[in-house]
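re: ur question from yesterday

yeah so i grabbed the chain u mentioned. its 299 aa long if i counted rite. heres the sequnce exactly as i have it in my notes:
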Amino acid sequence: MIKDLEINHLRTLEILFRVESISLAAEHLQVSQQAVSLQLKKIRKIVGDDLFVRTGHGMAPTSYAKFIEPQIRQVLMLLSEIPAPGSLDSSQTSRTLVISATDYAQKVVVAGLIQRVRQYAPKVKFIVTNIESVSLTQKMHQGEIDLAFTSAGYVPDGINTQVLFNERYVCVSANPMYSLDELVPIDQLMQSDFVITSPGVGGLRGSADRWLEGQGLKREIVVSAPSFYIAQEFLKRTDTLAFIPSRLMPCEGLVEITLDKYPPGYEVVAAFHPRVENDPLVSWILNDLHQQFSKSMAS
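ran it thru and got these structure tokens back, copy pasting raw so excuse formatting
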């Protein structure tokens, strides 16, 4: 059957089309005449046609061979145009990259990344979606998401990660009384109401609560917001407090509260499915991000 033809079979046929001789084909392929004859015998059996018949001057293609010659040449031409992994022309790379990220990562990581990628590969387009949590592995496996930017603790098993930088929490409020440069014991804040951000899945328990419990403290959470933007807007309209990533400050309308101690920070990572590990564009992006954030990792 035609589907059983291999690339070496097609190359042998292409040479025979050109030279119409077993001996000359063997010279071009740098193999013995016997090897070419055996190869041709296999091909004849696969396609069910003699393909070449002997003449007084060598080999002549059959009518069926002449019929399939253009397709064989086209297949080999397309194969020759497949670029090697390191030889892609970024200016001609045309594709759509799907990125899943929290609104924090969209602001801190993705916005600058898109700007740099468009300079490197102008034909690349982007779809940026809110972070997936429950279905991240499935969507990455199906090729619906190329890259995700989130905290390391939210990446499921089976997904590769590259650490970008370490983030720390700051405590913020819209209450101007906290704008005074005074050290506030964290236990005093437990009398206030808190807002947390829970992207993807809602809940009235935040990432700092386990640490607080270890300090013998418990806070009152009154709002769980789906994004840091919504959390900040709610903070500006109420007397609530929140722990937010430091890179979101300064923020107009909010002041940072100087505490005697803080909840531990976290690693911000780029997450990707193992199948795209050798993708030239993804590899370029990961290297670019490493260069962008390596200084903050070292500090």
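noticed a couple things. The domain at 2-80 is CATH 1.10.10.10 (Arc Repressor Mutant, subunit A). also The radius of gyration is 31 Å.
anyway ttyl
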